[in-house]
Automatic annotation (TrEMBL):
Top-level taxon of the source organism: Eukaryota
SUPFAM superfamilies hit by this protein: Six-hairpin glycosidases
EC numbers: 3.2.1.26
Known catalytic reactions: Hydrolysis of terminal non-reducing beta-D-fructofuranoside residues in beta-D-fructofuranosides
Listed name of the protein: Alkaline/neutral invertase
Role of this protein: Invertase that cleaves sucrose into glucose and fructose.
Length: 650
């Protein structure tokens, strides 16, 4: 069915629930005052046709009307096909603190939530400074302080650290983006000296996460709530590349607030939201991580602010389900991991991570657990919840079992038999031992281990990918032992992974012929630069979350103190180059917002480790049971096809 046909279907009422009042209204309160809503309702008789006819520019509330078919209806998305940009008249700014009109439950207007700081200790003066943590660590190790850090030195240190934090807050606030007078995000980089902005003047979903967390931890909830609800509206946008549209539920990689002339009135302008789903991005890759991060942030918002009304909204619930349906859809895959193209996450260009990259799997697992916590049970979603539970169990089993590597496992792989045809093969993926990279044999510490970057038939990508490993710890995708082992490895390999600036995005870099083939000779991804072994200060926050979860704050504190030595002086670069992160990256943007926000989140969590709970997840007992059930039914025990059919309904 073509777009216009679908629109006709919608207009003729062929899609029953599309205009049902709860759905239609659910987004209206987002940016429009009740005055405007009434006005628009008054025009309703003629307005639907007019709106579709009118343009590729749609008014905000129309988009909301059209875009939320509950239960993944087919046509809503097509109907919105003509609505290219999300638009808002600036007169609507006052509605941000208005009253939810249609939800009946007060919807998301919870300024009172500001008072609901669940973490009483947030912003408390009880700051766990690096020195104190070091002291703690020494005490833990039974050592006494050698007294080299005198009072004068630590006072000076504290003052300079405070000024770095003040500067960071100021820069973060300067990067805020407003839509109709309300803050809705932060731009990727705010470098006044750069002439080559590219798309760094946009709000990236993944880049906003540390900004959002920093604001949440500071008790500033509005910007996060606005971000969540506005990006939700973009979720159902038409997104096409050369006549092809990806699945419903995709969240954009980024969006921009544009000021455009008002329809029919040359003298006036209005603001529109213009999303990019990858159709303009370099490489044209859809961002699989955006929706997953969105779910994680949504849960963090609820946990931190105490305002659960956002996640309970019908449109938000529908948004969660659309993301889940997209991720849980059946395909050709034999693995429970999510199959994606190269560059569909933080590493958004070719780096040989197509297939089942760890970063996506860790975010997927995290988002599934977060969604499970937030989904309100209703008849229509039983199947979805069952699929989600089954996937969680299968996914954690698969990653913990097949992605894990340490000395013992490496030796096991080294002795693998190959070409095993059977249900109970040990070497299920037919990995040839010769694949074990020489660097890994040297690099693997005796104590510690990590999750490999990717697993495909006859192929293990042994590179250490930081975000995937750190988020596997934060989300509990890695077991407790594995999580400690990952942190042990980080400590053991400090000189490689942290060196002069935390944290290397992956290790080691691709070089020579391998670089040529895998990156396509990408001059931006030369060895030890950018995504190919460059160091990204933003990763500090994920490192800190992982450390807090495992109650090992001293590791994060040490990394933060390394960053503090130069990050402000270097103007908050996006990334650093060279093996030891000695240079500011070749094409690195300065005043990169997520470098700034990442640092702030790390500091805030160091001050209040408990606050990391808004981001971390744990398996509950039902999942643990289902998991052990699977373990006993599965791994290297003898089994036939029958046992494989078993499903786990949690
Ligand atoms: C680069 C990064 C990507 C980030 C974007 C904006 O493209 O690879 O992860 O979102 O810059 O900062």
């Amino acid at each position: 069915m073509g777009t216009s046909e679908a629109v006709l279907h919608v207009l003729s009422g062929a899609v029953p629930r599309l205009f049902s009042s709860d759905l239609c209204s659910s987004n209206l309160d987002l940016v429009f005052s009740s005055k405007y809503h009434i006005k628009s309702v008054n025009k309703k008789g003629s307005s639907y046709m007019q709106r579709f006819k009118c343009s590729r520019l749609a008014r905000c509330q129309i988009g909301s009307y059209m875009c939320k078919p509950l239960g993944g209806g087919l046509y809503g998305n097509r109907a919105i096909g003509r609505l290219k940009l999300l638009r808002c008249k600036c007169e609507r700014a006052e509605s941000v603190s208005g009253v939810g009109m249609d939800e009946g439950n007060g919807a998301w207007f919870v300024d009172s939530a500001k008072k609901l700081n669940l973490n009483g200790s947030i912003n408390s003066p009880n700051i766990l400074e690096f020195d104190a943590v070091e002291q703690l660590k020494r005490e833990k190790e039974g050592l006494t302080s050698n007294g080299t850090v005198g009072t004068g030195t630590s006072t000076f240190h504290k003052a300079s650290v405070d000024s770095i934090e003040d500067e960071a807050w100021e820069l973060l606030r300067d990067s805020m983006v407003y839509y109709c007078g309300s803050p809705i995000g932060t731009i990727a980089a705010n470098d006044p000296t750069s002439s080559n902005v590219l798309n760094y003047d946009q709000v990236f979903i993944r880049d906003f996460i540390p900004s959002g967390i920093a604001f949440l931890l500071k008790g500033e909830y509005d910007i996060v709530r606005n971000f969540i609800l506005h990006t939700l509206q973009l979720q159902s946008w038409e997104k096409t590349m050369d006549c092809h549209s990806p699945g419903q539920g995709l969240m954009p990689a980024s969006f921009k607030v544009r000021t455009v002339p008002l329809d029919g009135d040359d003298s006036a302008t209005e603001e529109v939201l213009d999303p990019d789903f990858g159709e303009a991005a370099i490489g044209r890759v859809a961002p699989v991580d955006s929706g997953l991060w969105w779910i994680i942030l949504l849960r963090a918002y609820g946990k931190c602010s105490g305002d659960l009304s956002v996640q309970e909204r019908v449109d938000v619930q529908t948004g969660i389900k659309m993301i889940l349906r997209l991720c849980l859809a059946d395909g050709f895959d034999m693995f429970p991991t999510l199959l994606v193209t190269d560059g569909s996450c933080m590493i958004d260009r070719r780096m040989g991570i197509h297939g089942h990259p760890l970063e996506i799997q860790a975010l997927f697992y995290s988002a599934l657990l977060c969604a499970r916590e937030m989904l309100t049970p209703e008849d229509g979603s039983a199947d979805l919840i069952r699929a989600l539970n089954n996937r969680l169990v299968a996914l954690s089993f698969h990653i913990r079992e097949y992605y894990w590597i340490d000395m013992r496992k490496l030796n096991e792989i080294y002795r693998y038999k190959t070409e095993e045809y059977s249900y109970d093969a040990v070497n299920k993926f037919n990995i040839y031992p010769d694949q074990i990279s020489p660097w890994l044999v040297e690099w693997m510490p005796n104590k510690g281990g990590f999750l490999i970057g990717n697993l495909q038939p006859a192929h293990m990508d042994f590179r250490f990918f930081s975000l995937g490993n750190l988020w596997a710890v934060a989300s509990g995708l890695a077991t407790t032992d594995q999580s400690h082992a990952i942190l042990d490895l980080i400590e053991a390999k400090w000189a490689d992974l942290v060196a002069d600036m935390p944290f290397k995005i992956c290790y080691p870099a691709l070089e020579g012929r391998e670089w040529q083939i895998i990156t396509g000779s990408d001059p931006k991804n030369t060895p030890w630069s950018y995504h190919n072994g460059g160091s990204w200060p933003t990763l500090l926050w994920q490192l800190t979350v992982a450390c807090m979860k495992m109650n090992r704050p001293e590791i994060a504190a040490k990394a933060i103190s390394v960053a503090e030595k130069r990050i402000s002086r270097d103007k908050w670069p996006e990334y650093y180059d060279t093996k030891k992160a000695r240079f500011i990256g070749k094409q690195s943007h300065l005043f990169q917002t997520w470098s700034i926000a990442g640092y702030l989140v790390a500091k805030l969590l160091l001050a209040d480790p408990n606050a990391a709970k808004i981001l971390t997840t744990e398996e509950d007992s039902e999942l643990v049971n289902a998991f052990s059930c699977m373990i006993s039914a599965n791994p290297r025990r003898k089994r036939g096809p029958k046992s494989l059919k078993q499903t786990y309904i949690v």
